[in-house]
Amino acid sequence: MKSFPKSAAFSFLKASRLAAILLMALVCTSLAFAGPIHDAARKGDVKKVRALLQGDPKLLNDKDNQGNTPLQMDDHKWADVLRKKGAHE
């Protein structure tokens, strides 16, 4: 079995570790750019979605960093509630 020189193996491990850290950072930041209504919709938290909409009806068609509205976050049964209030897909 071939073995890498110690310096090449070390460089590979360093690069792999850096790639893993960058990937985790990307995942965390992409989730961070969704508003509270998007988070509640993703979790299926009907009470929180209703409370947020009661406080600010404009959140109904609010878009996250990827252009999704709360209605597009998940296919829960309560999506009809959002549509009846005027949500757009």
How does the SSE layout of this entry go?
Layout: H1 6-32, H2 36-43, H3 46-55, H4 79-84
Helix pairs in contact: 2-3
Write a structural description:
This protein has 89 residues and is mostly helical. It has 2 domains: 1-32; 34-89, Alpha Horseshoe (Serine Threonine Protein Phosphatase 5, Tetratricopeptide repeat), CATH 1.25.40. It contains 4 helices and no strands. Helix 2 runs antiparallel to helix 3 (46-55). It starts with 5 loop residues before the first helix and ends in a 5-residue tail after the last helix.
Please give the number of β-strands.
0
Element-by-element helix/strand order: HHHH
* Cα shape: rod-shaped
In round numbers, the mean pLDDT is 75
| Count of distinct structural domains | 2
Label this structure with key terms:
Serine Threonine Protein Phosphatase 5, Tetratricopeptide repeat; rod-shaped; 89 residues; mainly alpha
Short description:
By secondary structure, the chain is mainly α. The chain has helices spanning 6-32, 36-43, 46-55, 79-84.
